[in-house]
Design a protein that fits this description.
Layout lengths: L1 H10 L2 H4 L4 E5 L3 E6 L4 E9 L3 H8 L5 H4 L3 E9 L3 E8 L8 E11 L4 E8 L11 E2 L2 E12 L2 E11 L6 H25 L1
Parallel strand pairs: 6-8
Antiparallel strand pairs: 1-2, 2-3, 3-10, 4-5, 5-6, 6-7, 7-9, 9-10
């Protein structure tokens, strides 16, 4: 029996790490988890009374992000077409810490059935690094939106980020976690306006 367990752990290593997710915050329609490691990761599951198309439209309206997210100073769209966007984002951090910036490529695609995916990852070569900012070089996030009915959707956000240098835990949590949680809370309010 012990040998079978060892073999299963080698074949399915996620069985061991699945327990590392810790519930960080929850609301009436979502649960948000965090996972420690070399780079911290987050996962949020949520259900909405909003169409998948409306959620995708909200999540790809990059120019509005500085108005609705406290932690975003600016977003410049470098390239944009129907399914891909390259964005330069400057993140606010409190004094005496150095502001962060990142360049991300965002792709929107339709997956199997009624599922849409928005995948974002850090990229290099588009914007020169500045001495007054710390570049976030490791960022990856996937948002899967499943259209349950024409006006209800389920969503899973998973992501990881490396903040660029050593920062206190509260600032790391803010850089890592506040954006995705705010996203879920803002999408929840979209239904109230309909």
């Amino acid at each position: 029996m012990f040998k079978v367990l060892i073999i299963l752990l080698f074949i399915f290593p996620d069985l061991v790490s699945a327990g590392d997710w810790k519930l960080k915050k929850s609301g009436t329609n979502y649960k948000a988890y965090i996972k420690a490691g070399e780079n911290k990761s987050y996962r949020i599951t949520a259900d909405f009374r909003v169409s998948a198309d409306k959620i995708v439209s909200f999540l790809t309206d990059f120019k509005s992000f500085p108005e609705i997210y406290d932690g975003i100073e600016s977003v410049d769209i470098i390239e944009n077409d129907d399914s891909t966007s390259v964005n330069y984002t400057v993140l606010k951090v409190p004094w005496p810490f150095t502001r962060r910036d990142m360049v991300t490529k965002v792709r929107v695609k339709k997956k199997d059935g009624n599922t849409k995916e928005i995948h974002s990852e850090s990229v290099s070569g588009f914007v020169k690094e500045r001495s007054d900012r710390i570049r976030i070089k490791i960022f990856e996030e996937t948002v899967e939106i499943d259209s349950v009915t024409p006006v209800t959707s389920g969503m899973i956000i998973t992501g990881t980020i490396e903040t660029g240098d050593m920062v206190p835990g509260w600032l790391e949590d803010r850089l890592l976690f506040s954006g995705p949680v705010k996203t879920v809370e803002l999408i929840s309010k979209l239904k109230e306006k309909e």
